[in-house]
Design goal:
alpha/beta; TIM Barrel; 8-stranded parallel barrel; globular
């Protein structure tokens, strides 16, 4: 089977230290966590910006510090969020794309997000896609529901993004598609054969869906952004501990672990830090 790409989502915009005291906030803390995740077996880190008090920010200078500090410490691939927080404008969300991370996310639809709405109108999606294309940053298509796959394929047809696509199926967000295993099967059957994909299960669904993806030949995203527990009632010491759980399972079933160079080649990335 294809070596397993493990992405560590280390901070997010919603998870706070009240949920888990190990959530990193500052660029220094995020970079340290990225290095630990790389040592545990991850080859990509997905990052959001935070202020020192944990408030989400998409500020370009914050992302520059995060990117520089990570690249000083490790060879892990760096993926920026363009989702930010639900209340941010699209202009705020893409402010740092010109820093040329290895990848950046592109959510291809609007979804209820708990009590809030994560707004992604088609013009907004096109604006983000254009910014990514301008700076040569490959998108990871973030899918919270089935229609987002069809929108991604429309973007390809219109020449706004280039195939082959890499999808991340985010399952279990309240308001989005549920984290049932059959939903992952359904989504994988929707995408073109030349696509690659990963799954991010929310909360208690994170590790079971990760293990299913490993068995299916897909890839995984784990980390404190999506789940703060390493097992029922036990807080994870960091995203690295969740990476270790995934690596352990992959080894049990004979799935090799990808390094950043292999992942870069498989996903068609240009290593900006090479």
């Amino acid at each position: 089977m294809e070596p397993l790409i493990i992405t560590a989502a280390v901070d997010g915009a919603e998870t706070m230290r009240e949920h888990n005291p190990n959530v990193p906030y500052t660029p220094e803390e995020i970079a340290t966590e990225a290095k630990r995740c790389r040592e545990a077996g991850a080859c990509m880190v997905h990052v959001h910006g935070r202020l020192e008090d944990g408030t989400p920010t998409q500020d370009r200078e914050t992302f520059k510090q995060i990117l520089d500090k990570i690249r000083e410490r490790t060879d892990i691939l760096v993926q920026f969020s363009t989702g930010g927080a639900v209340w941010m404008s699209v202009e705020e969300r893409i402010e740092a794309v010109d820093l040329k991370p290895d990848m950046a996310t592109l959510t291809t639809g609007t979804v209820n997000f708990g009590d809030e709405v994560f707004m992604n109108s088609y013009p907004m999606i096109c604006e983000i896609a254009a910014k990514l294309k301008e700076h040569g940053v490959k998108p990871e298509i973030e899918v919270f529901d089935t229609g987002m796959v069809d929108t991604a394929l429309r973007l390809v047809k219109e020449g706004r993004v280039d195939a082959p696509l890499h999808f991340d199926f985010v399952l279990g967000v309240p308001g989005g598609m549920g984290a049932r295993p059959q939903n992952l099967d359904f989504l994988v059957n929707m995408i073109p054969e030349d696509s690659t994909w990963s799954v991010a299960g929310i909360g208690r669904h994170e590790l079971p869906l990760a293990y299913k993806a490993i068995d299916m030949g897909g890839h995984v995203r784990v980390g404190l952004e999506d789940n703060v527990y390493v097992e029922k009632g036990v807080l994870a010491q960091g995203s690295w501990e969740l990476v270790e759980k995934v690596v352990s399972y992959a080894k049990e079933v004979g799935r090799p672990i990808s390094d950043p160079n292999h992942a870069s080649a498989l996903l068609g990335l240009s290593r900006m830090n090479a």
